[in-house]
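Page 42, continued from yesterday. The earlier attempt failed because a stray header line got pasted into the input along with the sequence. Redoing it now with the clean sequence only.
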Amino acid sequence: MKRLNKFLIALFVVGFATSCSDDYFDVNESVNNAVSSTPALSLPVAQKFTVDVLQGDYNSMNTLGNLWAYSWAAGSNYAYFTDETNYVVTSSFRTGTFTTVYTRPLSNYEIIIKNTDVKNSNYVAIAKIMKAFHFQYLVDAYGDVPYSEALQGSANTTPAYDNANDIYDNLIVLLTEAQDLIANPDATAITPTANQDIMLHGDMAMWAKFANTIKLRILLRQSEKAGLVSQADFDAAVNNGIGFLNAGEDVLCNPGYVNETNKQNPYWGAFGKTVAGDPAANAEATRATNYAISKLSVDPRKARIFKPVGTTTNFAGIAQNDTFGPASASLSGIGPGILSGANQSGVIMLSAESLLLQAEAASKGYISGDAEALYNAGVQASFTYLGAGDATDYLASYAFPNDPAVNLEAIIYQKWVALMGINGFENWIEYRRTGFPADLPYAPNNLSGATSIPVRLLYPSSEYAANPDNVPAQTSGDAFTSKVFWQN
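This time it went through. C-alpha cells are written below.
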C-alpha cells in the first residue's frame, strides 16, 4: 500500500500540469512543462500511463487490436465495439491512440530526457527507450507523425510531421544512445529503485536488453519490404553482444495495484470485476470470435486465453457484427491466463514475443542462433505466462517447419496466439506486415462495406484544427488503402 500511495503522490505532482488545459488531449498543448518534478517522480507516472494506453480500458490499443486481429467480438445482446467492427474509421475514431500517447506517457518521458544532470543518466536512458517504444507504435498506426519538433510545449505548438521511415531510423539512434548511457554511467549515476522504476526495478542490464529487443522489432517490421533493411543494419544495431529478452524476462509494470477504487489494474477494472466483485463494465459484452475458438481448438492455451461457457467445459465464439447470433451468456469470455486479478501487472512486452522475434531474425539469417530452438522457447514462454503448463506435446503437432519458405507463417501464428488478449495491437500490425494468419477474416457485414481489415488509423480532427499547415490530408478511404511505409 505504501508503494501505491507514493506513486499516487507522484501522479498528482507530475499530472498537475497535464490536467489544467481545457483541451487536455490536444498534442499541441503545452502539457509537458510540469510545475514541479524530478526524474524519480516522473518515471513511474509515465510508466503507469504506458500501461493505460497500451493495455488499459475499452479505449486501449489492446482492445482495438484484438478486434482488428479478429480475436474478440461482442455477444449479440450487446451493442459494443460497433465502430471498430464496422470499420467506421474517421478523424473522430479512437483519437486517444494519437493524442493521449503524446500528452500522457510521452510528455512525461520527455521531461526526464530534458534533464541534464549526469546523476540522472539512468532515468534518461529508460525514458529514451520508452520514447522509442511509443513512437514505433505511432508510426505503425499513422505513418508520418510529429517527432523532431514534438513535445516542445509552448515553444512549438504546431510541430512538423516527420517522414515515418526517417523516424524509424532515428529510433535506432535513440535506443543506441540509451544503451550507451547504461554502459557508460557517470560515477554519480543513480540507479532507480523499485518504487521509481515500476517496470524493471532499476535493472539496467535488462533495460539494455529491452532496448535491443525493440530495435529488433523495428528492423524486422521493415524486413518484408525490399530495400528497407539489410544485414548491415542488423549488425550495426543489434549484433552488439547485449542480447535480447529471453525466457522469463517479461517486461511488466505494476505501481502496486490493489482491489480498491481507482487502484485496480486498469485492464482488470475494465474487463474483469469491480471492487465489489461484480462484472466490470465491459466484461460480459466481450467474447471470443468463432474464428479464435476454432483456431485454438486443440491448443491447451485456449482455456487460459478464454473461459468456458457458464459452468460447462465447452467453448464458443461468435462472428463480429452477428446481431442475431448467440447472446453473451452462451459464449466464452476473456480467460484467467489474461485476467487474473485486480493486482495483476500490466504487460509491456512478453518474453514470448521477444523469442519469436529472435526466431524470425535467426531464420532470416540476421542474427546468430537456432531458429527452431528460439521458436520452441517462444511457444513455451507463452504457455508459461498463461499458466498452460508444458508445451512439449503441443510442439510435437506444431513443430517449427525449418523451411525458409514457411517459417514466417508458423512464427507469426504463434505470436498471434501468444499476444491474443494481451497485445492485440501488435497482432494487427503483424498481420498487416506479413498477411498471417493467412485466413484471418475481415469483419462480416461491416457498415463500411470493406472487404479487408483497415491498414492504418486516421489523424484526429484536433490536429486539423490546431495544426492544419502540417498534418497530412486524408480521406476515410485512406484507412484501407494508404499503407505505412513498411507494408507491401
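Notes: Strands lie at 72-74, 145-146, 161-162, 251-253, 286-288, 346-349.
Reminder to self: strip header lines before submitting.
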